Amino acid sequence: MKASKSAQEKLLALQALDSSLIQLDHKAKTLPVAKLLDEKVIAHATARDLCVAAETEKSDIKHELSKSEVDVEQVVARIEKDEKRLASGLGTPKELEQLQHELTSLAKRRAELEEIELEVMVRVDALDQRIASLGAERDALHLEVTKLAKEKETALEEINLAKNATIKDRESLAKEIEPELLALYEKIRSSADGIGAARLHAGQCQGCHLTINAADLSKISGLPEDEVVRCEECRRILVRVS
């Protein structure tokens, strides 16, 4: 293939723009702030879910507490009723004796229920503290997520601005390159890690970074300057720049 020396040299400028686009895409995909944002989003979701779980557990325990309170109230009411009856002295000695035994049992039952009620209250207090801690953590993480999301958005906007400017420059430059040469470059670039043309420098292809043997270098040197040369190793277009 034949192509003017200037057109071949423009390939290097085009390659530089394409390489910049590759780097910008890589930068967009590997933003440190994006990785940190993903971590914080997961942490926030975890704290939120744990908070919801703790709230649900507290609700269940409060039902348990309500039941304990009702049980205690019922026993207290029975004790008060029996005490009044015992104080009145009405009834046979045997009935009064049975009433006394019942009061003893009720007092024991009341103590057991109040102990259960106290334990439930302690669990509620512990959950309140846990909910407060998780809520504070969740809210703090929400603020971090919001801040990092904004930083990521700003970073991506800057990258997109750079990409758009580079694409515009590329489109303008591509129009200056002979269509056949451009087509070859695009074909190679699509299958060679985004590098379709490389400089021949100090006897080395800057695309694959392999040194060209002396015989091939001599052969390349003897070719007309408008002859399009390809690297024997990577098959990229070799641009000879004096």
Question: How many domains would you count in the coordinates?
Answer: 2
Structural class: mainly alpha
As laid out across the biggest beta sheet, the strand order is: 2-1-4-3
Overall shape: it is rod-shaped
- CATH topology label of the largest domain: Helix Hairpins
Radius of gyration: 42 Å
Total strands: the figure is 4
Distance between the termini: 20 Å
Q: Major sheet: size, sense and barrel closure?
A: 4 strands, mixed
Task: Give me the strand/helix succession.
Answer: HHHHEEHEE
Number of helices: 5
Instruction: Give the low-pLDDT segments.
Output: none
Approximate strand percentage: 5-15%
Q: Determine the mean pLDDT.
A: 91
| CATH class placement of the largest domain | Mainly Alpha
Short description:
The protein folds into two domains: 5-24 and 178-240, no CATH class; 31-168, Orthogonal Bundle (Helix Hairpins). It is mainly alpha-helical. It has helices spanning 5-29, 32-88, 93-174, 179-190, 214-221, and strands at 197-201, 204-205, 229-230, 237-240.
